[in-house]
Write a structure and sequence with these properties.
6 helices; binds 2-acetamido-2-deoxy-beta-D-glucopyranose; Secreted protein; signal
Length: about 200
């Protein structure tokens, strides 16, 4: 008989005007190495990154015998469908003394995935630990040991747009502004499902 384990899905898109990192998950002291240079836990960094595609993304603390689930088919977005978010969410589960899914399970509902990269620009004052960019595909899992060995590798953070007076970048800038506006418009119309809080799931 299959063990019945209670799985938990994280809320994404609890509607909020201010985009903020929200989490009540806290890491055990043993996992301090997972924190970034600004002492932010992987749960906080994950929440900040996942919040880029939603208006906010709450990473709720995991009760015993639960773990974070990847995105649903309906709500899968680029912020979730990448190995960086997967690694951070896996680390977030692990640092609470819980388990985490395999990469293939996490990304099962993703139409496309970004591997070893995060597809969106990183917001100011968000620092993504270097270990979050490590390979998870080869072994189909977040490798905690490898991550720890790479605890002090260079972080990724906000890259200021280049300042230039030539014509081409201006066009690009205008283009990217248009895209930003379109993205904002889309983000401001979340589905009713995206507005609700936390999902619970009981797969057997
Ligand atoms: C994959 O697993 C092998 C055997 O456990 C390990 O030596 C290797 O470092 C792992 N690679 C990654 C990228 O996790
Ligand atoms: C990372 O840096 C901290 C603080 O300097 C140090 O204690 C730790 O051993 C380092 N970890 C690795 C894997 O180099």
């Amino acid at each position: 008989m299959v063990t019945r384990s209670l799985l938990m899905v994280v809320a994404f898109g609890s509607f909020c005007i201010i985009r903020a990192q929200t989490t009540d998950a806290s890491c055990l002291p043993f996992y301090q190495w997972m924190a970034n240079s600004h002492k932010k836990s992987p749960c906080e960094v994950a929440s900040a990154l996942l919040g880029i595609c939603a208006d906010s993304y709450n990473v709720a603390a995991l009760p015993p015998n639960t773990h974070y689930l990847g995105p649903t088919l309906k709500l899968a977005n680029p912020c979730q469908c990448n190995t960086v978010a997967y690694s951070l969410m896996s680390a977030c589960g692990s640092c609470q003394g819980r388990t985490f899914d395999s990469w293939s399970t996490w990304s099962a509902n993703c139409a496309s995935v970004s591997v070893n990269s995060f597809p969106e620009p990183i917001p100011t004052s968000v620092y993504v630990p270097g270990w979050a960019y490590l390979d998870v595909k080869t072994n189909d899992t977040f490798n905690e040991l490898l991550a720890k060995q790479n605890a002090n590798t260079t972080e990724s953070t906000f890259i200021p747009p280049p300042t230039s007076t030539s014509t081409k970048p201006t066009i690009l800038l205008l283009l990217s502004k248009t895209l930003q506006i379109r993205r904002v418009t889309r983000a401001q119309m979340p589905s009713s499902e995206a507005l609700s809080g936390v999902w619970w799931d009981y797969p057997y």
